[in-house]
Every structure is written in C-alpha cells, then in structure tokens.
# Entry
Amino acid sequence: MPVLKALLRRKLVLLGLFIILVFVIVAVFAPWIAPYAPDVQFDDGLDDIGAPLGPNAKFWLGTDTLGRDFLSRLIFGSRATLIVAIVANTFAVAIGVLIGVTAGYVRGPLGNLMMRFTDLMTAFPALLLAILLAALIGPSLSIVMVVIAMVNWVQVARVTYTETISLAERDFITAERSLGAGTARILFKHMLPHVVPTVIVYGTLGIATTSLTEATLSFLGIGVQPPIASWGNMANEGQTYFDSAPWLVFFPSVCIAFLALSFNLVGDALRDILDPTLRGRH
Amino acid sequence: MTGYLLRRLAHVLLVLIGVSVITFLILHAPGRDPARQVAGHTASPEQVEQVRHELGLDRPLIEQYWRYATKLAQGDLGRSYVQRSQVSELIMARLPATALLMLGAIFCELLIGLPSGAIAAFRRNRPSDQGVMLGALLFVSTPQFLVAYILLYVFGFKLQWLPTTPGVSFLTLILPALSLGLIGGGWYARMMRSSIIEVLRQDYVRTARAKGLRRARIVLLHVVPNGLLPIIAMIGLDIGYFMSGIVVVESVFGWPGIGQLALQAIQQIDIPIIMGVTLVAACAIVLGNLLADLVAPLIDPRIKLK
# Structure
C-alpha cells in the first residue's frame, strides 16, 4: 500500500488520524466513558438563580442551561455529529459520482441536462437551501443527513464528470468497446475504478464540510433537535449564557473545529498523494 | 464579445428561472397550508378559504408560478405573509447592510490571506510556511459561529474595545467583517500559496534570475503581480460562500442584513420573503461568477472567451 505508507509518513496526518480515532472511540463507547447520562437534569445542576454551573469536582466541564452534565453531553454529542457527517457525506459522494460519471459517459442531451442541473445547484445559496428544506420538512436526524447530502454533492459531480469525459476518450475504453463490452461493463469495470481516488479524497475532505454544515444548521436551530445532543445544537443552546458561561459555546465548537481539521488534514494529504497533477507542487 | 455577453446573460436568466422554479416547488410542496398560516390559527374554515382565494393558492400550481413570474419580471416580489409589506422593500432596506458587510469581509480576507499565502510560498517547506498553512487549515475547519463568538468575547466583552450592541457603523462592522474575513483568509492563503509557487516555476522567472535581476525586483515585478491576478478573479466566485457565512454572522452580531431577514422568514415559513431572498442571493452568485469569467481574460490574455 504505497498510498498508506506515504500518508503515514506525514506527522500532521498522524495527528489528524489520532484525533479522528479518539472521536470515534468516544462516540462508540460513550455510555461507558461519560460520567453521567446525557439527559439527566441534576437538582444541584444549576445555581441559585438558575444559571449553569462552571467546571467543578462533580461536573468537570460544568453544567448546561438545563442543569445537565456538560461533559457527558459533549461525549454523547459526538455520536450525532459523527453519524450525520459520515452518512450525509457518503450520500453526497454517491449522488455526485452517480451524476458525474453517468453524465460524463452518456454525454448527449441526457448528460447535458444532468450537468445543467448541477450548474443550477451551484447557483443555489447552499446553506439557504439547506435551512429551507430542514425548516419545511421538519428537522430530524435523518432529514438533516438528507438535506446536507443534497447540498454537498455538486462538487463531486463536477470533478467526476470532467474525469469521466477524459477517460471515455482514452484508447483502452475504445478497445474495450470494440471488443463488444456493454455500457455496464465499461462503467463498472473501467470507469469507476478510475474515479476511486476522487471518491477517497472527497470521502475524507467532504466529512469536514458536512460536519461544518451540520454544526451550522444545528447552531441555527434547524439541525439535530434536542433532546439528542450534537455539538452544533449544544453551541446553540449555550448562546443564552454566552457572557457568563462562554464555555457552553466554546467547548462544542472547538470539538467541531478539531473534527473538521483532522479530516481536512488527512484529505489534503490524500489529495496530494493521489492527484498526479499536483505532484511536486507542495 | 457582445455575443458572448448576451449568451452569458441569457444563461444567467435561465439559471434564475431554474432557481425560482425549484424554490417555488419546494415551498409549495403538498402537506403544508400557507393560507391557514396567513389567516391565523383562530380563523374559521371560511376565512381560511377566503385567504386562500385572495392569495391565489386555490389555482393550479403552474398558474400560480406564472403569476409569480410575470410579477417578478416587473420587479414585484409580492407581499410578505407575516409582515404584510412589500418583499422588495424589505429586501432593499436590508441589502445595503449586507453589501457593506461583504465588502468589509472581502477586504479583511484579502488583507489576511494574500500576504500570508505569499510568505508561505516564498518560505516553502520551512517552519513559517508550515505554520501559516496549518493556521489557514485551522480557520477553514472552524465553524463560522466559533470565530464570531471568540471575537465577540475577546474584543467585545473582555477588552471592551468594540461595541457588542447591534447596529450599523464602522465600529460594529469590524468584528462581523473580521469573522468572515478570517475564514475566507484561510482559503485565500491556500490559493495564493499555490498560485505563487506555480509562478515561481515559470520560465520567465528563471530568465529574470539568470539575467541577474535582484530577488526583490523579481518578486515585486514578476512573481507577485502574476500570482495575484488569478486570485483576484476568484473574488467573484466567493459570493456563494459568503451567503452561508452571512446568515450565521448576522445572527451572532445582530447585523441587520438579508441573512437575518432570511432566517426569520424561514422560521415563520414566510414564502414570499424566502423566494425573494433566495433569488437575490442566486442573482449575486451567478453575477459574481460571470464577473469572474469576464475579468479572467483581462488578467491573463491567454484565456479566451468562447
């Protein structure tokens, strides 16, 4: 695996992979790691005037606006955040590849129509569209994933489209076709393997984008809905006490930033390694 | 050139029609009843029917869209369901604030991104390059609201250098513009670095070096201008990114622009305002792209308009 070797030689990539690993472990083992359940409202979780507590011996990161243990919510919040980011991005990449490769291979009026639609989507203010869909359909975990996928597939489609077009004109495809291979065989056996590097790069970089989109939607109150904790909606709830308890906004937001940074570090490195046109430029 | 421009403008028009159709279809999807919303929860079924008839919601969808589109062609975006005033007036009242914020943000991101990207390129693979690039990646990975809140906390609450109250003035502009500019600056630093590295590989730079020009002269006369120009054309492509950031930043700082108008309208499902803001935003995005394409050949004569 030369790619893996080249990847692991970079220190920042190791750091990124380490952070991702930590987040995944935390998400998977949340019930065992978290000191308390995420939705328990403690009687001693708020101070005399009903404001959240600061970090102390019982609640290591303090409590949130409803007197719940903030650390536990942060730990459980990793689940929704990671699931939404990964699932939404998988859908986005799948839609993008499907549209890009089909349009690039079929060309003609159908291919043209697909790419015009893709162009149209780039003119859509993505976040507005996401907010709109989420608000209309009624936000829920699955809807948030669908919405994010629907606004994030465009770039993948454009890249795979260009790749497929140049591939389709290569001799080995012509040879294969003259040997009598059908469209399905050419697409699956010859085209798709060539877009695998793109899929890997966007499968990684895209998670950074989707996690930021989720965070933004949840922060605006139209993403993952309480009582399910996600880092975005925790930051949203924390806003009310921003001047007295700024950590309620900062801790979850910093987690999101680290998650996105890690996937960007790994994705950037993958792109450097996998894209031959970039070789020697970095 | 005129032919190209006409074709591109026709394309812009088509895109806007497409955007309006899609938004219209999303907003008029079955299962929701705008008439009930406008009439209020206490209204009798007859009153709801009356409102439905007045708004033309009892007509076929195609007819409704046609009516909307013909009015749109005359610059009429309809009336808000909730605020009852003209959507175009509501948008026009808030557009200057958003435009000001965008200008401030573009200024900040260029001011931050271009020099740091250039420095990184000239010090390629040295610690300062790696530091700048890691910093740029960090900003690119940071949620917009975190940057906004950190700035608000440090400069607004702790140091109290800048006002935290909503309003439009030079002082209140600084923090929102900087929040957008820091993240955008991260992108520009990355692009500027690649662009300068690309220029440094060009033959004319080697020639300049070979004929004995001093390094400062090569950098200032050949490398920086040539590296800078393609980046400037990218500003036009930025508008889409800004539209997302603006909704968040306007909400954190209480900046009275169209981002806030949109967010409020979406929460109240005020269809005419949502349509209006989406169209204005799409308009800005396609015109920005067009501008970028028109500027490109002026900057680099090798690019020809087709």
Chain B touches chain A through 47 residues (CB under 8 Å). The mean pLDDT of chain B is 85.
